[in-house]
Amino acid sequence: MLKLAGCLCILVASSGMAWTLVYGMRQELCQMEQLAELLTAVEGEVTYTRCPLPELLEQLAGHMRTPYRELLQQCGHAMEESREADIPALWKAACGEWKEQLVLPGEAYQILWRMGEVFTYTSLDSSLQLLQSGRRRLETLMAKEQADFAGKRKLYSCLCYMGGLCSIVLLW
After folding, report:
1. DSSP-derived 3-state class of residue 45
2. How far from the centroid of its chain's Cα atoms is residue 88's Cα?
3. pLDDT digit of tens for each residue in the chain (172 aa)?
4. What is the distance between the alpha carbons of residues 92 and 79, in angstroms, rounded to a whole number?
């Protein structure tokens, strides 16, 4: 009876591990989709709304979901407190603080990190080009990740369950 309970615990643990890995991949895809929405929203706000930057970030935060909402709010408050600060440096610092909460692959994080350069308003055309190129790179990355998702999900599930079954056989 004790061996049966141990086997059941091993199967539950391997199922939990498979679920955790698949959930992590889904979170990554979801956050990349939210980042694409953020890039589109920033492009629209920069193009049509010429309000002060802290207000712009607060407006964007109202439309975004977690963790981007908190990132935008934090960056907006930091910009309000220090009006003479370097805006891209503030943005990069805020992104650095939120790196642990974001489950983005490296290239997607670099797109988010460079987005602070848009807020310098040196030229509207250069800002829009930066946003559009970032969005194109992100869409390419998302398409690749979505194509790999089904294969990785099967692979992770099979490896976790086979590892659990092998453990059961070895421990029996």
Report:
1. helix
2. 19
3. 888 888 899 999 999 999 999 999 999 999 899 888 888 888 887 777 767 777 778 888 888 888 888 888 888 887 777 766 677 778 888 888 878 888 888 888 888 888 877 777 567 777 778 888 888 999 999 999 999 998 899 999 999 999 999 988 888 7
4. 12
Question: How is residue 109 written in tokens?
Answer: 């994080």
71 and 95 Cβ atoms separated by less than 8 Å: yes
* Residue listed under structure tokens 């250069």: 126
Instruction: Say whether the peptide bond before residue 54 is cis (omega within 30 degrees of 0).
Output: no
Distance (Å, whole) CA 28 – CA 63: 20
* 115 CB neighbour count, 10 Å cutoff: 21
Chain mean pLDDT for the chain: 84
To the nearest 10°, the Cα dihedral for 21, 25, 27, 28? Answer: 140
Measure the CA–CA gap between 1 and 97, rounded to whole angstroms: 50
